Amino acid sequence: MRASARLGLAVVLFVACADEREAPGPAPVPAPAPAAPAAPDPGGYDPAAFDSARPETWPRTVEQAVAVLLPGLDEAAREKIRGTPRGDLIIFHHGWGTGIRNELGLWRGNDDLLRACGEKHPDGASMVIIEAVWDALQKER
Fold first, then answer.
1. Which of 120, 69, 117 has its CA nearest to residue 92?
2. CB 95: neighbour CB atoms within 10 A?
3. How does residue 41 score in pLDDT terms, banded at 50, 70 and 90?
4. Model confidence pLDDT, tens digit, residues 59-97
5. Is there a contact between 35 and 4 (Cβ–Cβ < 8 Å)?
6. ∠ at Cα 36 (32, 136), nearest 5°?
7. Spans of all domains in the chain
8. For 34, which of 9, 67, 71, 88 is 20 to 30 Å away at the CA?
9. Are 106 and 126 in contact (CB under 8 A)?
10. Residue 93: which of 66, 122, 119 has the closest Cα?
11. Does residue 102 carry a pLDDT above 80?
């Protein structure tokens, strides 16, 4: 399973769990949407080539990280993130944020991405990335 699909699955599962807390009864867990191929950005980075096990494919900028993450989000996840007030995005710190930190190499030496986020710690960097995904989803409306 591609890393972007795993990250998308993590947010789908998080959204499903959050929805279960809000409404009684079991909620079906939607299958993640198939990852749409993303076009390389002007800097030459190809998010479709991302593989969390290969550091040379890790995103080095916030924009590249967003390009890796967006294709893995199905419509339910996009709506959940889009509908969350910016000040409440911390609810994604565990679950989806953990996946971002692990998959994008923030704990494994992706210092370029840490610097691009303006952060020294992976926790802060993942929140910058979550906010950037939120910003991108707001523009999709």
1. 69
2. 16
3. low
4. 999 999 999 999 999 999 999 999 999 999 999 999 999
5. yes
6. 85
7. 3-24+52-139
8. 88
9. yes
10. 122
11. yes
